[in-house]
Amino acid sequence: MTNGKALSDILKRGAQNLASGAKLNRALIEKIYAEGLGRKPTPNEIKMAEELIGKPVKKEGVEDFLWAMTMLPEFQLIY
Length: 79
Prior knowledge:
This protein is mostly helical. The protein has one domain. The chain contains five helices and no strands.
């Protein structure tokens, strides 16, 4: 799953779309958690995600965050 070009391309496009419309990284983090895991992030998860995404929101940071989310066992159980 992690070494496929298809997944890599999907995450790159997703990061570009999310980063281009994001003004606040907290709202973006909460949106990704809600859609990806069906729950709100914990305070520790928010802190780590904010460090990855950056201020202002950076496409590369969003992509790294999406990769991290897809590697979570919780995400893999859902999808």
